[in-house]
Design goal:
Blueprint (H helix, E strand, L loop, with lengths): L13 E12 L2 E12 L2 E6 L6 H8 L7 E6 L2 E3 L4 H7 L1 E4 L11 H5 L12 H14 L16 H13 L5 E5 L7 H16 L3 E5 L3 H7 L2 E6 L2 E7 L5 H9 L1 H17 L1
Parallel strand pairs: 3-8, 3-9, 6-7, 7-8
Antiparallel strand pairs: 1-2, 1-4, 4-5, 9-10
């Protein structure tokens, strides 16, 4: 499949574009001709019931899975994402729900794991200075960059995971259920962080089941149902009930009943 992508994406225009993405596992079609646009400085919530295809789409974007069909555009050009490393080099970072943090290491060690700063030896001072600066910009509220990750709250662990991706200078960040299992205060911290990422001009894809969180920070809501697009909505102008209807298929049922009724009246 060929696709044309805008040559000069900017704020308000698509930075990341998916066109006709399909992916099957044997006889099971996980995604069928899915489209998605993410602009710089925009939060797009990706929602849908379990089995809707959200996880598969995230893995396609992050290079874990390869699509069977379709095209991916990034910064105005057609690209392939053959591996997670390729996604990171491209500028697409993903924070999965399990966070992949090492609880036996401290904050600095987690931030720089696999990308340690070295001169003749490990430059612990430079890493600590950079960690403090980054977490300060994020208003993270982490008491010490030398604190073991195991001692941090769920919200602050989420912050560390997001901060780690920022060290790679991404342009799009995908967050897989970033507020799942968090308390009210911790959820507020994470939502504030997502707003900060948007203000910095990053494109953010937030996978979530929580409609309150979606409506709090998302600009656009993209609904997947049974592996297909089932609507793109303005978050501020769409009611929670309308979003739930698109997710569950109630909207489709209403349309179907109306069409059946109209056919009956015409006969």
């Amino acid at each position: 499949m060929s696709a044309e992508f805008p040559s000069s994406p900017g704020r308000g225009g698509p930075l990341l574009s998916l066109r006709g993405i399909s992916k099957s596992f044997g006889a099971v079609a996980a995604l069928t001709e899915v489209d998605l646009d993410v602009a710089a400085g925009q939060v797009v919530a990706l929602v849908g019931d379990n089995g809707a295809g959200k996880s598969t789409l995230v893995k396609v974007l992050s290079g874990v899975h390869q699509p069977d069909a379709g095209a991916i555009g990034f910064a105005g050009r057609s690209v392939t994402v053959p591996s997670p490393a390729a996604a990171q080099r491209l500028g697409i970072a993903t924070v999965f729900q399990d966070l992949a943090l090492c609880e036996n290491l401290n904050v600095v060690e987690n931030l720089f794991l696999g990308r340690e700063l070295r001169g003749l030896r490990l430059d612990e001072v430079a890493m600590e200075v950079r960690a403090r600066a980054l977490l300060g910009e994020l208003s993270a509220g982490i008491p010490s960059v030398r604190a073991p990750v195991a001692t941090l709250s769920g919200g602050r662990r989420q912050t560390v995971a997001i901060a780690r991706t920022l060290l790679g200078d991404p342009r799009v960040i995908i967050l897989d259920e970033p507020t799942a299992a968090l308390g009210v205060a911790q959820t507020a911290e994470v939502l504030n962080l997502i707003e900060r990422l948007r203000d910095w001009g990053l494109g953010v894809v937030m996978v979530s089941h929580n409609m309150a969180d979606v409506r709090a920070v998302a600009d656009t809501v993209a609904v997947l149902r049974l592996g297909r697009n089932n609507g793109v909505f303005d978050a501020a102008g769409t009611s929670a009930s309308d979003l739930v209807a698109a997710i569950t298929g109630a909207t489709d049922n209403v349309v179907s009943r109306r069409a059946t009724r109209d056919r009956g009246q015409a006969s």
